[in-house]
Write a structure and sequence with these properties.
Helix content of chain A: over 70%
Helix content of chain B: over 70%
Number of helices of chain B: 4
Oligomer: heterodimer
Shape of chain A: globular
Largest sheet of chain A: none
Radius of gyration of chain B: 19 Å
Order of helices and strands of chain A: HHHHHHHHHH
Order of helices and strands of chain B: HHHH
Number of helices of chain A: 10
Amino acid sequence: VLLGILPFGLVVGVVAVDAGYGALEALGLSVAIFAGASQLAAIDLLARGAPLAVIVLTVFVINLRFAMYSASLAPHLADLPRWQRALGAYGLTDQAYAVSIVRFQEPAPLPYRFGYYLGASLSLWLPWQLATVVGALLGDTLPDALPLDFAVPLMFLALLVPAVRDRPTVVAALTSGTFATVAYELPWNVGMLLAAFVGIGAGWATSRRLPRGPT
Amino acid sequence: MTGRVWLAIVLSGAVTYAARATFFLFADQLDRLGPEAREALRMIPAAALAALSVPAILRPDGAVDRFSPELLAGVVAALAAWRWRRLMVTILVGLVAVAGFRALLG
């Protein structure tokens, strides 16, 4: 997992500097958000001068998937004290979720669930911050020929493929992708935000019409 | 300018934490959420990620171009994502592909 996040952290740092920001801002983003995909989107929107509300709303929509993860992990952590859950929430990432949910779903209960989860999430934190700073410092020295601009959509694509699992999610993805492509002309990310909501509605309506409940 | 950047950073961090924390903090009251609401939540990743990735692949420069390097590389990367399901493999394959197709077609 670590091998996966280090290069990605580098990319986030490099993109931030390319967009005209310093290592400090790149690190600030990494500490505050700690979620690469939305960091890249925020950098892109900041550089294009989008209004504050659009930036924050975009980050929120991208990171709404954490609410999903959080809902899925929550039953396993329900008996923990509130402060442990509040701390644990900050460390929730794609990778920490993927690692933890597999262990939590094993039949034999894990004795130190909180320890396991915290270990999984915070062992990613420091390398992520370091990689961002290194990327930001290296930024200027890397050749422009590297198609790093395309790394952003690729990252979203890589997360999208496993998220599409059944008919409702396929409908949600197709509707949203089509709408976003058609509405591309709208300023900043308004098209993307609308598309996400339309896609959620379409997927939801599809699953309501299915005879059986969701899998 | 700098103030705006830091305000965006702090607010973005706050909404991200809110998304992560809501269900953790109310883990003991989750049953109240009906199946309909859960089903809507389940659609979020697919819809949000498609809205983010598809336009950049289909309309890299604003125009719909049937055989753009980005579209071809996107198809290659989607196949890689489906086959290996590893974030970094998909990104690396896609980057190599887009560099290659840009060199070939560009």
